[in-house]
Design goal:
The protein is an alpha+beta fold. It has a six-stranded antiparallel sheet, covered by helices on one side. Strands 7-8-9 form a three-stranded antiparallel sheet. Strand 5 (about 75-80) and strand 6 (about 80-90) form a beta hairpin.
């Protein structure tokens, strides 16, 4: 393919992406000799004058944005009917591809990405610009880890579900704020909501709302509360879950007041999560080792209003705590004082001759009885807590697990059931503290019941490019079989799957995708048929009979004796060939 140059300056090298509004090319600015990304508007928008005016106006406004977390816009222009934007080229991947490839991201990475996006949004909001389409597809992550927002200020459709030639939807509702879904104008807090949806997807590997079409998803944004993130990823700290759900508040006033405030909240969370909890040692006691609490998360939990609430209790780990140097031991002190008192009493008795009177009665008048002073402090003995061993409940059904835990004088607590590829549904597959741990009586033992192997609904990939559909399905853990076959859909796109979308499958199951070879038909084998029957089959197959070449024995040679007059002896194309629908067919017929 010959490279195209726009306005004798911008060379289009390779297409790297395509959406409902434009194609994106990796290119080169020949004047400045630098790599750039060039977004070329689809041709059918060139006739929409109002759209083009807004396109150029908002692209020029976006070119004024300068921030490390925003893709720079260098130029906006037109070459004939081709309208384009020239932007900074980021060597890396968009965030959506990272999620599809890796599933949920590490918590620290997800929070850091969200913080950078919030910082970029704040820079735009200060200039009066609202992005209106914050989503992982518009967030780029460079090879060095830099995060940049793209597609700032580009005109968008709010709820269109029309399919483009790439099979992608234009104006997806997956990240749409409730106010936008109601038809109201987007505000800076609408961008915060969309960033909240993006964080939800980064942390769980899934969207909070899904549906058969964009309208169904938009209505969920308006009226349905998102499922708790920890339902899908129990490793998410409660406070972080609260931050995300606060950004996803239906009421914009209940979200963070600004992207700057949200970035500060995320930064504070990251700082707190890196602090180590310090546990002050205490004096040793007689008896078995004492339990000290395990590490406490530095990220406190909170409710939807943002108030901080206590973290849920965790069962203690058991550790022998050595005595701290220099600590005051009251028991030793009291024993010492009693010993000194006894010694002083003996000395007093000896000095007054009381010992002589005790062993030689009648030798003298007994002195008045001596009363020792009572100690000023009493020795208070703390009872040693009873220790028990945590039973092993993994592999038991829930009733048996509860009985085993309560039988050990411990308190059972059930976490939300989760999928397990190892343990059958209805049986416990995880517990805390682990089996055989020594804990105090009445310690809480949490357990998790398996729901069986995880079942994933097969996503809709029909009308997607075959390579994209295969990548997405393999990212979800499916095996993929690709079958190429003719279809009216453009070549290279999926036109059918087995099983159909929505079917619940396990990871490792095989999905067959049928990829179109284009609108082709197979030429029927008409050799040996009468001419009229051959023509009928050609037309029925979607082809066009154009000509019959009547051939005598001088041309047919040995074939002349094999076929009777009026019988088809050959065809162009040959029987079994795949050809474009409507292609002309020439028949070779033995002449009378």
């Amino acid at each position: 393919m010959q490279k195209k140059i726009l306005n004798n300056r911008y060379e289009l090298e390779q297409k790297i992406g395509e959406g409902g509004m434009a194609r994106v090319y990796r290119g080169r600015d020949l004047r400045l000799n630098r790599r750039v990304a060039i977004k070329v508007l689809h041709e059918h928008y060139a006739a929409d004058v109002s759209f083009l005016q807004r396109f150029h106006h908002e692209a020029q406004a976006a070119a004024g944005l300068r921030h490390p977390c925003i893709v720079n816009v260098y130029d906006v222009g037109q070459d004939g009917d081709t309208h384009y934007i020239v932007m900074e080229y980021v060597e890396g991947s968009d965030l959506k591809s990272l999620i599809l490839r890796n599933g949920s991201l590490p918590i620290n990475q997800a929070v850091a990405i969200a913080e950078d996006v919030a910082r970029g949004l704040e820079a735009a909001h200060r200039l009066g610009m609202v992005h209106r389409d914050v989503k992982p597809q518009n967030i780029l992550v460079s090879l060095s880890g830099e995060v940049k927002i793209t597609d700032f200020g580009i005109a968008k459709s709010s709820l269109s579900t029309a399919l483009t030639e790439t099979g992608m939807t234009f104006g997806t509702a997956d990240y749409l704020s409730p106010e936008q879904a109601r038809g109201f104008a987007a505000t800076p807090r609408s961008d915060i909501y969309s960033l909240g949806v993006t964080m939800y997807e980064m942390l769980t590997g899934r969207l909070p709302f899904t549906g058969e079409n964009a309208v169904a998803v938009a209505m969920q944004h308006v009226s349905v509360d998102p499922p708790p993130l920890r339902m899908f990823n129990p490793q998410i700290p409660p406070h972080l879950e609260t931050l995300v759900l606060t950004a996803l508040s239906k009421n914009p006033d209940e979200r963070p007041a600004s992207a700057h405030e949200f970035a500060q909240m995320l930064r504070a969370y990251r700082a707190a999560s890196q602090e180590a909890t310090i546990v002050r040692p205490v004096a040793p006691r007689q008896g078995p080792p004492r339990a000290i609490p395990g590490p406490v998360s530095a990220a406190p939990t909170g409710d939807s209003s943002g108030r901080i609430a206590p973290l849920p209790p965790r069962s203690p780990a058991i550790t022998q705590v050595p005595p701290a140097s220099g600590e005051f031991d009251l028991g030793v002190f009291l024993l010492g004082m009693m010993f000194i008192g006894i010694v002083l009493g003996v000395v007093y008795l000896a000095a007054t001759g009381t010992f002589d009177n005790l062993f030689n009665p009648g030798r003298g008048t007994s002195p008045p009885p001596i009363t020792l002073p009572e100690p000023t402090a009493t020795l208070e003995v703390t009872p040693t807590p009873e220790m028990v061993m945590v039973p092993n409940v993994i592999g038991l059904d829930e009733r048996a697990a509860i009985a085993a835990i309560e039988g050990a004088n411990l308190l059972p607590y059930a976490e939300l059931p989760r999928a397990s590829d190892v343990v059958s549904a209805g049986l416990v597959f995880d517990q805390f503290p682990p089996p055989a741990t020594l804990v105090t009586v009445s310690t809480v033992v949490t357990y998790v019941v398996s729901t069986g192997p995880e079942q994933i609904p097969l996503p809709e990939v029909v009308t997607m490019r075959g390579i994209d559909a295969e990548f997405q399905l393999r990212s979800l853990g499916f095996q993929v079989q690709v079958i190429s076959a003719p279809d009216r859909l453009s070549a290279g796109f999926v036109f059918r799957t087995e099983p159909v979308a929505g079917t619940l499958l396990r990871r490792g199951d095989t999905v067959t995708i049928f990829v179109s070879l284009g609108d082709k038909v197979r030429m029927p084998d008409v050799t040996g048929l009468p001419e009229e029957e051959a023509i009928r089959q050609v037309v029925a197959a979607g082809l066009t009979w154009s000509y019959s070449d009547y051939q005598g024995c001088d041309k047919l040679g040995d074939l002349c004796e094999r076929y009777a007059p009026g019988i088809v002896v050959s065809s162009i194309p040959r029987g079994g060939d795949l050809v474009d629908r409507g292609s002309p067919v020439t028949l070779g017929v033995r002449a009378p």
